[in-house]
Amino acid sequence: MMNHSLKNQCKVNPGTIIEGKWHRNRYTIIKELGNGANGIVYLARASNHKQVALKMSDNSMSITSEVNVLKSFAKVQGSTLGPSLLDVDDWVRRTGNISFYVMEYIDGPDLLTYIQKRGQEWTNVLILQLLSDLDQLHQNGWVFGDLKPENLIVSGPPPQIRCIDVGGTTIKGRAIKEFTEFFDRGFWGMGSRKADPSYDLFAVAMIILNTVYPKRFNKTSGGIIQLKEMIRQKSELKKIEGVLLNALQGNYTSAGQMRTEMLNALNRVPNQTRQAPNKARNPHTNTSRSHYTKRKKKSNFIETMVITMIIIILYTVYIFGQLLP
User: Fold this and answer.
1) Number of domains comprising the chain
2) Boundary of a domain, candidates 104, 129, 148
3) What is the band of 322 on the pLDDT scale with cuts at 50, 70, 90?
4) 29 and 137, same structural domain?
5) 103 near 71, Cβ under 8 Å?
6) Which of the residues are catalytic?
7) Which of 116, 241, 276, 314 is exposed most, by the fewest CB atoms within 10 A?
8) Which pTM was predicted?
């Protein structure tokens, strides 16, 4: 947690110029975007006049950890979950050095605001995007940790889900660093706070619930009984009820698995590939390895085309609506 007096050193007024000790890059503070236990984030203008997000903290270890996460994101080909890292440096003040890093400024509404404005039908499209990025993140050894709508921004066009806070991202196997109770499985008595993919997938399920319960709901009995009842009260969740229950109970081993089953549920295609853990394979099966591979590739192609068509249709409707008087 930041020392209160040192946190005050990170508090600066609009117009303040931050100059890096090592790289000599200059940034003009525009306004504060947010603050927390590990620092303050500002909207700033770089010397090339582009807007950036600048985070400063008295805790250099916290800065180093978050920088490492952003560097890891950059190595995930095709993933756009987090912002791009632009600069890392120290700002020298009379009272001491303040560590900071500069990242891409992601502009747009948060997930709930976007869905409330554009329509509930966007939820599944954006969640499928999120699951795809999470799958890549998990394969690279990280768990996001503090997943919640406030940290998810929809940029574009075309609409794309992005994250603006990586402070809770944790290496697999360690204890979750930051969490928000409503999206935390430990709070609901549904598991530990150990960083594993299923921790993030529980949060994804709760984010979907949050889209149909914008003001959220209080914990009463807790556990799967209460959450199951909340799911069944909303007709919008009927198609993916099974997916939500599996995610809440930790039955998915990967975000990719959850994404595939969610697509199947939305398209009313039963999952025929899952086998019971102890069920022996039939040695006389007629499905060859090559046939299975071709079928899997075809399935993946169809999934991609379905998502692409949904995005195109929804975006076309949105543009057409904007043109109407």
Assistant:
1) 2
2) 104
3) low
4) no
5) no
6) 146
7) 276
8) 0.80
